[in-house]
Amino acid sequence: MADTAISAGATGSSGASNGGATEQAQDKAKEVAGQAQEKARDAGEQVRGRVSDQVDQRSTQAGEQIRGTAGDVRSFAEQLREQGKDKPARYAEQAADRAERLGGYLQDADGDRILGDVERFGRENPWTVVAGGLALGFVASRMLKASSGERYRASTSGQIGTRSQSQFDPHR
Description:
By secondary structure, this protein is an all-alpha fold. It has helices at residues 2-82, 86-108, 111-124, 126-156, 165-168.
């Protein structure tokens, strides 16, 4: 019985120290997990900031180009009016007005606003986004297919990947 008490005492003290070690390990794991979440959150914010900056720059450029095109369409509408073609001139003028509004939006809105508007549109019109993605995929596949024939013809005639030996001659 004394042996049992001694062994129970030894087990009890090691059990207590194991419990403390387990708590320390759990605390350390929670701390590491919290740090990982914080780093992931920071990285996500950095990526979103970069994307927002890129969208802002590109949208401003696109807005300027669209506004320039709208001006060209207005000139075209005036020429149509001079020729007595009022109905096509009216359609061209409407297209120019819409392009002007779109160009103004793209120039004036910052990247965060544009990304928010795109996200909101995607949530409100998921099927439109799916259809748009399918259409873009179809167009991309047709473009790749069309260009693959040209690449094949060029490669069989020796135009692709051939350089004159003098370009690689180190003694030249």
